[in-house]
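Changelog entry: the Tat pathway signal protein record was regenerated in this release. Current contents:
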Amino acid sequence: MRKAMRRTLALLAAVLTLAGLCPSPALASGGEAKKEAPPTYFALPTITATAIRRDGRKGVMTLETGIEAKDPKVMEHAQASTPRLRAAFAQVLMTYASGLRRGAVPDLDYVGAEMQKATDRVLGKKGAKVLLGSAMVN
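Regenerated structure tokens:
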């Protein structure tokens, strides 16, 4: 009888959780709620830089970026500074893309180092790491 009652309660808790009526599966099952670790990474929207070359042709460079911070206070400050970080990253990318020669492969190590400097400047301290995703030049 006890097993049947536990199964019924577990099924009821699962249904309530799926319906959004129960706060968490751990509380629904009668256990203690597990503390979730604070996020250590967030992705920024894709950054695009347009550059007009000397010969008048336009080029576009697109880059995916993200920020990683182990310290919750730094992470919170970085998330709050997202618009300023995007503006700084866009400036770095526009400056770099405008000097990129036609057919040249972008130097992502250099771009990453410049974006890291911009991140440290915007946040006012170290502790957040810039991560680069895919890069595309058209």
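The first strand starts at residue 41 and ends at 43.
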